[in-house]
């Protein structure tokens, strides 16, 4: 089940992040590293009431920020729809629990939250080397909008949105 995150979840969240970063490094995907995301990002998300965790009987297995605000470059992306939106960012799933639908569950939760607020668009992004995220977005029905080189990275970031 998905619930709002609490400050007491931060150590578990950061363990998930460290495990995810280790896999990203093995895959030569430098989307995340030692400088991002940090505990302070998740703490700020909790304070803003926009951090959620997926918890099963054994504990927290995933985390995601569901926000009304995208990253700073979102203002420069040529989105298909100029309307209010929710944004999913900093999503991570316990590597031992991947491919069980947890990531997709966060996207479904975001859609439910959006509809409850009269919002009909969700935006998201990922580093192009993060093929797991690309597959998740496509499976969830998100449409590719554009790619951009950010922060001097060697590969582009991909931007997606879904209207419902």
From TrEMBL:
<feature type="domain" description="N-acetyltransferase">
    <location>
        <begin position="1"/>
        <end position="164"/>
    </location>
</feature>
<keyword id="KW-0012">Acyltransferase</keyword>
<protein>
    <submittedName>
        <fullName>L-amino acid N-acyltransferase YncA</fullName>
    </submittedName>
</protein>
<dbReference type="Pfam" id="PF00583">
    <property type="entry name" value="Acetyltransf_1"/>
</dbReference>
<dbReference type="GO" id="GO:0016747">
    <property type="term" value="F:acyltransferase activity, transferring groups other than amino-acyl groups"/>
</dbReference>
<dbReference type="InterPro" id="IPR016181">
    <property type="entry name" value="Acyl_CoA_acyltransferase"/>
</dbReference>
<dbReference type="InterPro" id="IPR050832">
    <property type="entry name" value="Bact_Acetyltransf"/>
</dbReference>
<dbReference type="InterPro" id="IPR000182">
    <property type="entry name" value="GNAT_dom"/>
</dbReference>
<keyword id="KW-0808">Transferase</keyword>
């Amino acid at each position: 089940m998905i619930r709002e995150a609490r400050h007491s979840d931060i150590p578990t969240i950061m363990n998930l992040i460290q495990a995810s970063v280790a896999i990203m490094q093995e895959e030569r995907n430098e989307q995340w590293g030692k400088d991002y995301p940090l505990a302070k990002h998740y703490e700020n998300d909790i304070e803003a009431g926009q951090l959620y965790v997926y918890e099963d009987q054994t504990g927290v297995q995933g985390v995601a920020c569901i926000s009304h605000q995208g990253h700073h470059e979102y203002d420069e992306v040529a989105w298909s729809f100029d309307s209010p939106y929710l944004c999913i960012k900093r999503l991570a799933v316990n590597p031992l629990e991947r491919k069980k639908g947890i990531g997709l569950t966060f996207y479904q939760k975001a859609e439910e939250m959006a509809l409850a607020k009269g919002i009909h668009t969700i935006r998201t992004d990922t580093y192009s080397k993060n093929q797991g995220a690309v597959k998740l977005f496509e499976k969830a029905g998100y449409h590719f909008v554009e790619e951009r080189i950010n922060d001097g990275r060697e590969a582009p970031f991909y931007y997606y949105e879904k209207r419902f």
